[in-house]
Fold this protein.
Amino acid sequence: MLSNEAKTTIQSAYSQLLKVKDLKPRRGQKQMIAAIARTLGGITQDGDGNRISDNPICVVEAGTGTGKTLAYLVSTIPVAEDLGKKIIVSTATVALQEQLVNKDIPDVAKNSGLKFKYALAKGRGRYLCVHKLDQEMQDQRMQDASMDMFGGLDASEDQKGLFQSFLDEFTSGKWDGDRDNWPNQVENQDWSMVTATHRECSNRRCPHFNACPFFTARKALEDADVIIANHDLVMADINLGGGAVLPEPAKSIYVFDEGHHLPDKAINHFSAQVKLHQEENLLKQISKAVDTLGKQAGTPMGLLQVVTAMPEKVSEISSKLKFVSHLLLDFLGDQAEQEGYHQHRFRMGQVPDELVELAIELNKTHNSLYGYVDKIVEALKSSISKDDGEYKQSDAERWFPIFGMLQSRLESAGLLWLSFAQKDFEDQVPVARWMERIYTDNEDDIGLYSSPIMAAELLAKNLWSRCFAAVVTSATLTALAKFDRFRMKSGVARANHFEIIESPFDYAKLGSIIVPPSAIEPSSGDDYAEKVSQALRENLDTSESVLVLFTSRRVMNDVKGFLPLDLSKYVMTQDEFSKQEVIRLHKEKIEDGKPSILFGLASFAEGIDLPGKLLEHVVIVRLPFSVPNDPVDATMAEWLESKGRNPFMEMSVPDASVKLIQSCGRLIRTETDTGKITILDKRIVSKRYGSMLLNGLPPFSRNLTG
């Protein structure tokens, strides 16, 4: 049970925050605090602090204006202290992560009376690897000798200048090695040369360990009570076994803000892919690396058998890849030689037997080659910290990150072949498997892809069963007013605590939903964009600040082209500038009293906050149904159909409901905002599911004449 001390601390912190900031208590906020405190307080643990009770998850859908952040911080911090656990607050977007770090959490720390330390957690790839930078800055002739296998990836003159700046600013203490704190934009290809994956990192053996920006940041996490992360980092940590970057799951209370994104993030982290030509290049790089290492540093007796066996194994994999390539080209038939991009999905994830047999053999040979490379990696790693290892220390330091990278890429390819070598059991949810043929002037390759279609089992096994407790919150966790779709996607068991907290906003007074007579039945025809532009001419008022949301980039740009100049001159599409710049220019125009109409896609339907006069009219051009050719969704639909279920009603409509709620959520951001939402898709009133979608929206006043 929740201790009296924790209860008192929560009540005191909340009261003090309201008093200091001169805020009124919100019913929904108090309701959310109570729900989280009850769930966490109901967890029992053994003498070693391990959770022994089930159902430790609190899922809260809290409408806009509830004050979710304050609620989950005030309720979790005292309980975590009481239980001796760390809090990991995870977000889906960088924007919310920055808001938490720079505003919300410091605000609670300053004004609540709660005493806690907090720190921002980022993945290893956001930090400079001092060792790799040092290697780049050393004698270029030596660097060329070891890196020539990568096709001339040695640093250009511009890169050398950039790397020198990195070194100067880092050694002077003016820069902490965090990519996000570098004053200018750094291109990915430049940054990749001076950052390291976990496979390339020799950890405490590294001569630069004590100055390492990543491990310096890790030390701050050890002292922190609240750690701010993101869903990608949490899933990457879980994928590495948990506790690799973040605290161990069993000692952590996770808070997933923007929690509706978590299942999709999990799916991405457990997917795999191989491009056949890229893997051929990888095999050449491994062969050349082994050969060049042997010429530079010799081959130790302990590795002689491994190095001798590698060429045959590389040749065996290369030969099988050619068989796979021929098989897939035959499979595509006439499409194989047609320019462009072609996709073929294997129905229900069932791969042809010939490809399964080749994948089984490739999985075995990849495992063997991986084992050989691993022996070299281990020999290099052990030689870094001692002079009597298999290699000289200087050679080991130079070559370890190179072989670590090759090993990582080989491991990634092996996961794809493992997936294609397996057949799904009939009673199991299938894995989506598909191929892509890319045939253009710049690229000629065949890709194979594999992905889980649901994260439920992955999350249940790797996260929910292992964490001490979790809070999942968002303004959009229900679809059609039910948690069914979220439970299906996330694997959170029904026995956990689920709660819907209504927004405090009086939507009926603040805004309206309009389906005008000019609403259109969507089509893929050439005249669709022209019809949309005509409908916009009839429904837009340049005296209002407007956001028009599209589901297709092509339609968005075509519609702008069809608008008359007296209207299109006020339109900015999200393709014209970066997202931040589009928002800045829009705000500037509105504040100067000038008209501004934003055209945006899905990222604008969820990720922007334009309160008050900055947004008075949201136009939804088309209901946000998912693209039907997505291989993961298509495989999921087939599986549901095979079970006699209706994928449109179980997947498409609920998912569209969530996206539609998010789109409508752009309009009312504060208690004083007003405006209207115009839906130009006639299906919202003409189809049976339309009323279901409308009923899932906030209770705006309605004018449905379409």
